[in-house]
Amino acid sequence: MYKLEYVGTEDFESAKCDKIKATCINGKTVFLYFDNKTAFLIKSETLNGEKDSFSTVVYGDFKTFGKLTYFTTMRFGVDPDSQTAKIEELFYNEKVSENDFK
Asked: Which of 65, 87, 55 is nearest to 74 (CA)?
């Protein structure tokens, strides 16, 4: 369970973002940055145990898989040369049918 708090707007790379603070009941804090134009989550910062220490993930290259639009790259850090992961294929609810919910 998270408590959500609107922090304000902030620029990130070439986007204006809405910044949301999400605090879990266990105390974990994550800042979520949503692009104002697309409403996509483009960055998250997880507050580490040390003061002012964050782990940052940047999401990009959004593609549509069926009816779902999802990021296909995750950059671990804000530097352009940070380690990046790429999603080649995304399968969701592949073997789930309406009958599974009856």
From this structure: 87
Residue 98 has φ and ψ, to the nearest 5°, of: -60, -30
- pLDDT for 9-21, tens place per residue? 999 999 999 999 9
Tell me the per-residue pLDDT of 39-77, one tens digit each, with 9 for 90 and over.
999 999 998 776 667 889 999 999 998 888 999 999 998
Q: What is the CATH number of the domain that holds 63?
A: 2.50.20.10
Amino acid at 79: D
- Tell me the whole-structure pTM to 2 decimals: 0.83
Residue range of the domain that includes 72: 2-101
Which amino acid, 81? D
* Helices within the chain (DSSP H only): none
Count of structural domains, the chain: 1
Distance CA 35, CA 12 (A): 9
- Describe the chain by its helix, strand, coil percentages, rounded to 5: 5, 55, 40
